[in-house]
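=== RUN LOG ===
request id: a7f3
mode: sequence -> structure
chains: 1
length: 79
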Amino acid sequence: MMRIALALAAMLALSACGQKAALEPEAGEALPPAPYGARAQPTADDLLDPVPQAAPERSVELRRRSEEREDDPFDLPPE
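=== RESULT ===
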């Protein structure tokens, strides 16, 4: 029982370690240069948001049951 209580206390203490303040560059450092053609320097929050190409949405529905595969014209035997 004591081990469980100690483990729960350790998990609670570790869960409170996250930083809640806004991200800023370290003292004396600057953000990366603006991308070519950009009108404004992106902020730290803008740099943390992934572009759609980095995290694309799924555009196909997963198969829910076993289906016969279609003939693949590129599935050729070795020469």
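=== NOTES ===
The chain has two helices and no strands.
The radius of gyration is 25 Å.
=== END ===
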